[in-house]
Amino acid sequence: MSRWDLSNMPDQSGRKIIVTGANSGLGAVTARALAGGGAQVILACRNVAKGEHVAGDIGPLASVRKLDLADLASVREFADGVDQVDVLINNAGVMALPEQRTADGFEMQIGTNHLGHFALTGLLLDKISDRVVTVSSGMHRLGKIDLEDLNWDRRKYQRWPAYGQAKLANLMFAYELQRRLTAAGSSKLSVAAHPGYAATELQSHTESIQDTVMTWGNQLLAQSAEMGALPEIYAATESVEPGAFYGPLGWGGMRGYPGRCGSSAASKDEPVARELWELSEKLTGVTYSFGE
Fold first, then answer.
1. Which of 87, 156, 159, 289 fits a 20 to 30 Å CA distance from 97?
2. Active-site residue numbers?
3. Cα-only R_g, the chain
4. Rounded CA separation 79/121 (Å)
């Protein structure tokens, strides 16, 4: 379908959907849209106060729960409090930060964007009835998975290669999860999405001159957060291909209406994906169960 937008979204009444990082940016837009379609939406946020502000605007279909993806104890506490959910949208993320560590000692970008969501999905999978949507980025094409030094313990830290690795890990996880679901005979889906170049707060936390550069880029080149959120909303609500990747179809994949898109050769490397999965289980202590 060309030019898919919210007017095409199927009725979401009776569905329960978790959106991580829903206190701002793409997550807030996604939560508003899903609730507007009738879904009960759980805003899983590190900043609960900001989440409450968004939920207040949405109304009674929105609720807020504390979730810090940079702390596995917080991930476990959140998951323990979830009964049943139809869809999990792994939307939250950090980008191009100065070198930092999570509560568990992981490099902040791989720890938040990938390992936190890997743990969350594994802990919730038996409670999810329909699908998992994981948000990646066109920047996955710049990424390389270093299985020997995933957390930048030995390499000299570089913020953009670290971001590319984290976003590549998101996409490889989504693909590998679908392969494992299919092998287990599960009807659940794993799909991935990316927003293209969308203007959000994500570009204002690099704590460098790049914040100013990206602010200008947002004004001159980026599409709105409302447009950037369409691919993940599409992936969460439409009849989609198992293990597919959705993003904007216009202007080099950086803007436009959503549809199925391609990804790098590295993202399709199944042996590396299996090794990344095993390493992620070891690092997080979360082992997946694929029982229906």
1. 87
2. 163
3. 17
4. 9
Q: So where are the chain's domains?
A: 9-197+229-284
Provide DSSP, 20-62. ETTTSHHHHHHHHHHHHTT-EEEEEES-HHHHHHHHHHH-TTE
- Looking at the domain that runs over 9-197+229-284, which CATH code has it been given? 3.40.50.720
DSSP H or E segment with residue 19: strand 16-20
User: Could you tell me which of 251, 230, 170, 210 has the C-alpha nearest to residue 7?
Assistant: 230
CA–CA separation, 37 vs 64, rounded Å? Answer: 18
Two tokens, residue 116: 């936190």
Rounded CA separation 128/17 (Å): 9
Residue 157 near residue 141, CB atoms below 8 Å: no
Q: What angle do CA 282, 139, 130 make, to 5 degrees?
A: 60
| Beta-strand pair 85-90/128-135 | parallel
Nearest CA to 183 among 90, 263, 274?
Answer: 274
Residues 68-111: tens digit of each pLDDT: 999 999 999 999 999 999 999 999 999 999 999 999 999 999 99
161-171 confidence digits (pLDDT tens)? 999 999 999 99
SS3 category, 18: strand
Q: Measuring CA to CA, which residue among 37, 33, 6 is closest to residue 22?
A: 33
Q: In whole angstroms, what is the distance from residue 214 CA to residue 168 CA?
A: 21
